[in-house]
């Protein structure tokens, strides 16, 4: 997932020039997340993202996958600069559409420093933008607007339920050592309506989406090669988030999951209750990287079989994060029948992500 | 019948004359080609640099050197027509402790990537992710690395004001090309560390697809403050091309004149050769050679010389261009493209054109003699003895006079597209008119000179009077080259003299201090200004602030000079009358402002100062040889009041009574860091300026030398051919009892007379051409006037030397011709 690519990229800086003088806000256990305030930006932390993924349907029934990601990055640079261009905070955004008819992703990215109205964020509620791309919240409704070279979309994402806190009440650890942690909540089962423009043709769409909001100052654990993450909206109204960190040998260093049942409070699972098993490999002809695109994910005693909407959902973000990864729409099968839809993300299958 | 040996072979038989014609054409073509190749190389390099700077920008918002308010960026970037906007702070930065500068661009890499991606910096291996945002990291082009021997991670010290900042080389500019001294840094760092807070110098705009730049331009211009303009990215390239074009065209015109002389030499050689071969042609005609074929072959002789000259000249031109690029740089020393290392490129089209020009000169030169030879009836030509009926006759005095009159009219033609075409037309008319009038002048001279003295002298004089055709051919070559050389000498002498006087006038103080070049990153802040004024031994100090103004789209920036100026401007090198205004601020404009913007003394004009239009009164015009794009001078007090800018670039220091210049200079130099402040005496500045002047005119001097060489070659060739044609005459004179010595003496006088007529005509024509160059060509090309200064001494020496050489050449040629036995020479024709 590019958010974590980003985190990892930030993580590896051996000498963070200027960072020595900067105190990033620490991620501490026990801090209670307060809404709507925590929907807004947390500029004292090093990095933060709002990350929406989901399935859409055009009127003729064809499914599409979409991704909208906004990063806020405090660079630790220019903190004392008197210039209005000082690069203290950056906004980076990625957007993609997975279209089975095209057979690959359409994607684009934007990045800018905060200032002069070119990019910015707000506290107190979700509002983040770069150029004419924006992601903002009004009440329980989010709006994502993206205008890229070969696609554009404007989507409304409506939340019926309160946020699901991951980890210990939103304190989400990334390694056995709880120093590596973030504040992290999800908003599953968002109802989507809006329009998508492909090849110059605008169509109205409906669907379901997933929103993550996460912020941290911490670096990821040493020795992490990559990770696998899923966010699944299940047909019965329940929702599952699960991820695992992989070491260089491909084995899990750490895993975490949150399951929110149809009714009742979310349940946080311990690493032993989570299993990721790869079922089928797909090799990218562009990069030569092989990804496991079909999975069996075990959560406690339940098994979810994940099948991609299309195999080629590889994303090359060499212009911003510099990483190549797989980020795509998946169908969820349980006991041989389709039981939900969601997004799968896999990193570190090619080279180890460039540090710094 | 094989005719090639008959005709083309004749070229080989008169080797000397052919060689000189060839040389003249080679030189003309070579010079033209060299100027063209060098300039093309420089311009294309300059253009490439600009294009990579402009990238995919559809429009550029530009302002004065000091820039404009950064708030404009937010305003423009938010407009619906604008897809992407990239803000830039450009500073010409001086390296601390060195003379060299580099162009530093403060950029926002995120915006840059979408508008001018070729400028994107690349961090070195192992660099951090946000290295491009660091406020101490600088990214440099290959040219900078080479020029200053910098390696990655090394420190580089740059001057700001009179202090310096130390930066680290953090990476390179992989796509920016190798030729420019360019560096890129984060925009916030440049603003904060180079004293440019809140300022931008440029915004590159990429427009939304389908939006017409022309239409948007007007809309955007409407929202911009005074002095900030929207331009098409090509504008800068055009400005540079326009600026240097006049210089290039001037040089090319000189080369064209050399070529013209070459054509003329072909003419004179052919004319004489054709006369000599009259009998030969008559035979050929008698045995059936058609008139047309004879004409064709004679023209082909000239064409062969021209073609050979064109080929050799073009090759030589590239060689010269290569040498000039290595020695003088892309602007042939004129300073238009500093900081560039252009690559010479073979230009097939232009090369072919120059070869063709050489051939054209040969054909044109051979045309008239060929026609003459072809029209003579064989029967008449077989009766030998009328070589005297040479081309030229009495010339065309009416036609010549008309051309001279036309040249006066041509001087009144205004510049066409910035080029003084009228001036060049006048020069061409003057030359052609003078050549046409030459026979009449020759007869006049012969008529005026007393017909006394020894026989050889009388014979020589009689010959000039009776058969001016001979003399004309020789003298016309002399006239052309003398005129060219004299005109250039007068122009350069006037220019140099005027610059010298001007330097004396603008450098009245005892010492001058500056913080690097006016356009650079050095400046004197208020504290330093106070300390300079308080330095012991310093009497009066006049500070100068250099800014630039954008007055019209598509025009290069105009220099704004703020310094103390008296109400009547009496200390300035004024040109014309003064119209001091009333109470409001007044400005003094350079002559270029008159030509380019039509400003006149006494007029009220708007000056964009600090983003506002300020009405100022034009008090007078001053002469400025330093800035061809125009300069406006304003009193420093007025400037500071209107803009709030309290910095200065230079200081003119008058010493206190009794103070020693060198002690004060030392005290001032040590006031700031090593070599941050340059202190110079007016004498040094003057010497440097004149050295630069001489270097700029090095090419002109070279052309002059070539013109002289061609002139001499012309005289020698003409006389050689003439003497050869007169073998029978010499034989006859020997029979009549003249000694060889007497004939030699006669020849020397003939040569001196012909050359004298040519030199006289050449000097007169040259004087007139010099005036045209000064008053029309220079004024229209570079927008400055100068006082006429004729280098009488050197011109006289040149003229006398040329006459003596002509006499010598005539004698030598005659000796060659008289080697044959006199009896044989006479007999061979009977």
UniProtKB/TrEMBL annotation, chain A:
<dbReference type="Pfam" id="PF17186">
    <property type="entry name" value="Lipocalin_9"/>
</dbReference>
<feature type="domain" description="AttH">
    <location>
        <begin position="47"/>
        <end position="217"/>
    </location>
</feature>
<dbReference type="InterPro" id="IPR010791">
    <property type="entry name" value="AttH_dom"/>
</dbReference>
<dbReference type="InterPro" id="IPR023374">
    <property type="entry name" value="AttH-like_dom_sf"/>
</dbReference>
<dbReference type="Pfam" id="PF07143">
    <property type="entry name" value="CrtC"/>
</dbReference>
<protein>
    <submittedName>
        <fullName>Carotenoid 1,2-hydratase</fullName>
    </submittedName>
</protein>
From TrEMBL, chain B:
<keyword id="KW-1133">Transmembrane helix</keyword>
<dbReference type="InterPro" id="IPR003838">
    <property type="entry name" value="ABC3_permease_C"/>
</dbReference>
<feature type="domain" description="ABC3 transporter permease C-terminal">
    <location>
        <begin position="253"/>
        <end position="378"/>
    </location>
</feature>
<feature type="transmembrane region" description="Helical">
    <location>
        <begin position="746"/>
        <end position="774"/>
    </location>
</feature>
<feature type="transmembrane region" description="Helical">
    <location>
        <begin position="794"/>
        <end position="814"/>
    </location>
</feature>
<comment type="similarity">
    <text>Belongs to the ABC-4 integral membrane protein family. LolC/E subfamily.</text>
</comment>
<dbReference type="Pfam" id="PF02687">
    <property type="entry name" value="FtsX"/>
</dbReference>
<feature type="transmembrane region" description="Helical">
    <location>
        <begin position="701"/>
        <end position="725"/>
    </location>
</feature>
<dbReference type="InterPro" id="IPR025857">
    <property type="entry name" value="MacB_PCD"/>
</dbReference>
<feature type="transmembrane region" description="Helical">
    <location>
        <begin position="319"/>
        <end position="337"/>
    </location>
</feature>
<keyword id="KW-1003">Cell membrane</keyword>
<dbReference type="Pfam" id="PF12704">
    <property type="entry name" value="MacB_PCD"/>
</dbReference>
<keyword id="KW-0812">Transmembrane</keyword>
<feature type="domain" description="MacB-like periplasmic core">
    <location>
        <begin position="18"/>
        <end position="221"/>
    </location>
</feature>
<keyword id="KW-0472">Membrane</keyword>
<feature type="transmembrane region" description="Helical">
    <location>
        <begin position="251"/>
        <end position="273"/>
    </location>
</feature>
<feature type="transmembrane region" description="Helical">
    <location>
        <begin position="294"/>
        <end position="313"/>
    </location>
</feature>
<dbReference type="InterPro" id="IPR051447">
    <property type="entry name" value="Lipoprotein-release_system"/>
</dbReference>
<dbReference type="GO" id="GO:0044874">
    <property type="term" value="P:lipoprotein localization to outer membrane"/>
</dbReference>
<feature type="domain" description="MacB-like periplasmic core">
    <location>
        <begin position="472"/>
        <end position="670"/>
    </location>
</feature>
<feature type="transmembrane region" description="Helical">
    <location>
        <begin position="349"/>
        <end position="368"/>
    </location>
</feature>
<feature type="transmembrane region" description="Helical">
    <location>
        <begin position="424"/>
        <end position="449"/>
    </location>
</feature>
């Amino acid at each position: 997932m590019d958010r974590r690519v980003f985190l990892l990229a930030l993580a590896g800086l051996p000498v963070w020039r200027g960072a020595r003088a900067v105190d990033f806000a620490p991620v501490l256990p026990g801090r209670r997340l307060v809404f709507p305030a925590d929907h807004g930006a947390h500029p004292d932390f090093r990095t933060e993202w709002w990350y929406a993924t989901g399935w859409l349907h055009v009127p003729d029934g064809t499914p599409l996958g979409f991704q909208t990601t906004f990063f806020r990055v405090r660079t630790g640079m220019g903190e004392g600069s008197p210039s209005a261009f000082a690069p203290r905070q950056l906004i980076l955004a990625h957007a993609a559409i997975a279209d089975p008819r095209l057979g690959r992703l359409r994607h684009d990215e934007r990045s800018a420093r905060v200032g002069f109205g070119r990019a910015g964020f707000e506290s107190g509620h979700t509002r983040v933008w770069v150029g004419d791309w924006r992601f903002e919240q009004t009440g329980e409704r989010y709006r994502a607007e993206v205008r890229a070279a070969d696609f554009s979309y404007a989507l409304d994402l409506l939340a019926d339920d309160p946020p699901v806190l991951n980890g210990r009440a939103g304190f989400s650890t990334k390694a056995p050592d709880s120093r590596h942690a973030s504040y992290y909540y999800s908003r599953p089962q968002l109802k989507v309506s809006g329009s998508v423009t492909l090849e110059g043709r605008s169509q109205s769409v409906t669907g379901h989406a997933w929103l993550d909001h996460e912020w941290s100052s911490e670096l990821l654990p040493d020795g992490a090669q990559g990770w696998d993450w899923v966010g699944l909206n299940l047909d019965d109204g329940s929702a599952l988030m699960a991820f695992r960190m992989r070491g260089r040998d491909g084995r899990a260093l750490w895993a975490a999951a949150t399951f929110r049942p149809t009714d009742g409070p979310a349940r946080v699972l311990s690493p032993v209750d989570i299993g990721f098993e790869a079922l089928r490999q797909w090799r990218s002809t562009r990069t030569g990287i092989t990804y496991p695109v079909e999975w069996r994910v075990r959560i406690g005693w339940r098994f979810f079989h994940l099948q991609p909407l299309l195999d080629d959902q590889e994303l090359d973000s060499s212009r911003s994060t510099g990483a190549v990864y797989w980020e795509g729409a998946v169908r969820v099968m349980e006991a041989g029948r389709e039981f939900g839809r969601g997004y799968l993300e896999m990193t570190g299958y090619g080279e180890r992500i460039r540090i710094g | 019948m094989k005719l090639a040996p008959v005709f083309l072979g004749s070229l080989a038989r008169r080797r000397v004359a052919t060689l000189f014609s060839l040389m003249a054409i080679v030189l003309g073509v070579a010079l033209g080609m060299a100027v063209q190749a060098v300039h093309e190389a420089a311009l294309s390099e300059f253009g490439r640099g600009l294009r990579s700077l402009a990238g995919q920008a559809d429009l550029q918002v530009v302002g004065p050197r000091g820039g404009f308010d950064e708030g404009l960026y937010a305003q423009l970037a938010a407009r619906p027509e604008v897809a992407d906007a990239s803000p830039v702070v450009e500073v010409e930065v001086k390296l601390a402790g060195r003379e060299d500068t580099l162009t530093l661009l403060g950029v926002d890499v995120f915006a840059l990537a979408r508008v001018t991606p070729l400028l994107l910096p690349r961090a070195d291996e192992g660099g951090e992710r946000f290295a491009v945002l660091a406020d101490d990291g600088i990214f440099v082009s290959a040219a900078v690395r080479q020029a200053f021997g910098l390696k990655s991670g090394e420190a580089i010290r740059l001057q700001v004001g009179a202090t310096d900042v130390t930066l680290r080389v953090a990476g390179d500019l992989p796509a920016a090309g190798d030729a420019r001294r360019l560096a890129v840094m984060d925009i916030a760092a440049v603003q904060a560390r180079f004293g440019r807070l809140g300022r931008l110098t440029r915004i590159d705009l990429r427009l939304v697809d389908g939006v017409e730049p022309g239409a948007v331009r007007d809309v955007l211009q409407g929202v911009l403050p005074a002095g900030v303009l929207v331009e098409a990215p090509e504008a800068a390239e055009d400005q540079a091309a326009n600026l240097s074009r006049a210089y290039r065209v001037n040089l090319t015109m000189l080369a064209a004149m050399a070529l013209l002389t070459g054509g003329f030499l072909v003419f004179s050689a052919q004319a004489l050769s054709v006369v000599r071969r009259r009998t030969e042609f008559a035979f050929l005609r008698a045995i059936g050679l058609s008139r047309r074929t004879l004409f064709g072959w004679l023209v082909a002789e000239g064409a062969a010389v021209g073609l050979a000259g064109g080929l050799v000249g073009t090759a030589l031109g590239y060689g010269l261009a290569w040498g000039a690029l290595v020695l003088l740089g892309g602007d042939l020393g004129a300073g238009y493209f500093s900081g560039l290392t252009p690559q010479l490129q073979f230009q097939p089209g232009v090369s072919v054109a120059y070869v063709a020009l050489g051939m054209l000169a040969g054909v044109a030169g051979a045309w008239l003699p060929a026609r003459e030879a072809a029209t003579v009836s064989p029967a008449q030509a077989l009766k030998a003895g009328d070589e005297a009926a040479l081309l030229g006759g009495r010339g065309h005095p009416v036609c010549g006079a008309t051309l001279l009159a036309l040249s006066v009219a041509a001087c009144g033609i205004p510049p066409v597209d910035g080029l003084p075409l009228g001036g060049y037309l006048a020069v061409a008319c003057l030359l052609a008119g003078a050549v046409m009038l030459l026979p009449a002048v020759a007869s006049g001279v012969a008529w005026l000179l007393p017909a006394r003295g020894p026989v050889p002298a009388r014979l020589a004089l009689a010959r000039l009077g009776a058969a001016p055709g001979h003399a004309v051919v020789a003298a016309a070559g002399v006239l052309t080259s003398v005129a060219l050389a004299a005109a250039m000498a007068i122009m350069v002498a006037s220019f140099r003299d005027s610059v010298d006087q001007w330097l004396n006038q603008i450098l009245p103080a005892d010492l001058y201090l500056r913080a690097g070049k006016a356009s650079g990153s050095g400046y004197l802040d208020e504290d330093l200004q106070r300390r300079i004024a308080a330095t012991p031994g310093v009497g009066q100090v006049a500070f100068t602030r250099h800014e630039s103004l954008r007055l019209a789209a598509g025009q290069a920036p105009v220099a704004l000079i703020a310094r103390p100026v008296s109400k009547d401007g009496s200390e300035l090198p004024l040109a014309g009358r003064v119209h001091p205004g009333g109470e409001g601020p007044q400005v003094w404009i350079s002559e270029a402002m008159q030509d380019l913007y039509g400003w006149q003394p006494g007029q009220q004009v708007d000056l964009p100062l600090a983003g506002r239009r300020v009405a100022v009164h034009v008090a007078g015009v001053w002469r400025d040889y330093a800035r061809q794009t125009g300069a406006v001078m304003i009193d420093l007090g007025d400037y500071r009041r209107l803009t709030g800018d309290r910095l200065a670039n230079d200081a003119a220091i008058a010493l206190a009574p009794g103070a020693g210049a060198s002690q004060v200079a030392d005290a001032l130099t040590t006031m700031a860091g090593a070599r941050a402040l340059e202190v110079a005496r007016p004498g040094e500045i003057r010497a440097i300026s004149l050295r630069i002047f001489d270097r700029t005119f090095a090419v002109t001097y070279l052309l002059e030398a070539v013109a002289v060489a061609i002139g001499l070659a012309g005289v020698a060739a003409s006389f050689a051919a003439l003497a050869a044609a007169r073998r029978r005459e010499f034989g006859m004179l020997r029979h009549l009892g003249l000694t060889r010595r007497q004939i030699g003496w006669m020849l020397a006088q003939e040569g001196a007379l012909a050359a004298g007529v040519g030199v006289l005509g050449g000097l007169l024509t040259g004087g007139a051409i010099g005036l045209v160059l000064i008053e029309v060509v220079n004024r229209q090309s570079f927008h400055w006037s100068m006082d006429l200064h004729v280098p009488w001494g050197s011109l006289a020496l040149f003229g006398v030397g040329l006459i003596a050489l002509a006499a010598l050449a005539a004698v030598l040629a005659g000796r060659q011709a008289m080697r044959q036995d006199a009896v044989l020479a006479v007999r061979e024709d009977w």
